[in-house]
């Protein structure tokens, strides 16, 4: 059974930092790209960042580029999101999601999601 | 960047009604479209991928169609447990969501 378990969320002041983790099990972690997707309170889904299976390629939404860093440790089956220079608009539930690539590996959908971890940026 | 526009943003229908949600892409995306269901307070769940392929375990009253720029999610007979928000997605872009309620 595929399981994704996020941790690391909490309350942080504007300008602060936070590191999210996502522990994966039930599948060959290194074979799959992974993403972070967030959802602000009462709002829709917003893709944040993605990383290839081996970690060699990373991708970011314009809204977080230069502030967030995605990484993974395949020996620990864990995905990370280092969030720096946090802003009020980063307040959201952050989900990690397993990607399935198709269309000649050019696009993806998300077949499994974690339960999410809440990040609140406020003074 | 590709933009995804869903309509309507919300709808209210009776149990047993046929419900249709549309998603339009700002450029052609072949059949590279997925649909997700998110019940209140819950995690998003994959319903359909490749525009029309039902994810394992999803009830057959859900179906998807379309190609290019215009796509549709249909619930053939709305059930109380279908109350949720529904999102379309391609690549790293989600639609803004459609909230489905029972009348």
Number of strands of chain A: 11
Work out the helicity level of chain B.
under 10%
Secondary-structure-based class of chain B equals mainly beta
The biggest beta sheet of chain A, please? Answer: 7 strands, mixed
Largest sheet of chain B: 7 strands, mixed
Question: What portion of residues of chain A is helical?
Answer: under 10%
Number of helices of chain B: 0
Mean of all residue-level pLDDT scores of chain A: 97
Tell me which protein chains meet in the greatest interface and how many residues each side has.
A-B, 24 and 24 residues
Hey, roughly how much beta strand do the residues of chain A contain?
Answer: over 45%
Please state the average pLDDT score of chain B.
Answer: 98
Termini gap of chain A: 40 Å
Tally the helices of chain A: 0
N- and C-termini, Cα separation of chain B: 37 Å
Reading the helices and strands of chain B in chain order gives EEEEEEEEEEE
* Rg estimate of chain B, integer Å: 13 Å
Oligomeric state as shown? heterodimer
Shape of chain A: globular
- The helix/strand class of chain A is mainly beta
Number of strands of chain B: 11
Net shape of chain B? globular
